[in-house]
Amino acid sequence: MAEKEILDNAKTLRTQQTEAEQRLWFHLWAHRFMKLKFKRQKPIGCYIVDFVSVERKLIIEIDGGQHSEQVEYDQRRDFWLRSQGYTVLRFWNNDVMQQLDGVLEQIRLTVIALSPQPLSR
Question: Where is the DUF559 domain (predicted)?
């Protein structure tokens, strides 16, 4: 896929977010979550990720039912993203809609784990 096509696709995805993506974005947007900057529908290589904190190299994917039919594709995609130094978290739409506090807590714990540790003296 050409770079312009990927960028156009990302813009389209930003205007057509799922309800679960909108719900999570409300909490990630404008440094609301742990004062981190997240971007949505961001191209990385030839992929478009749902949400990314570039600072923490953390990608958050919100999956609908179609992902149960494309497991191998998602595995290849996640492998490549991890090879670029990213941590990838995946949540089902239902998790975001029904257990948002648990999703946010898992993201928070991952951010803490990815945070640079202070040097010991």
Answer: 6-109
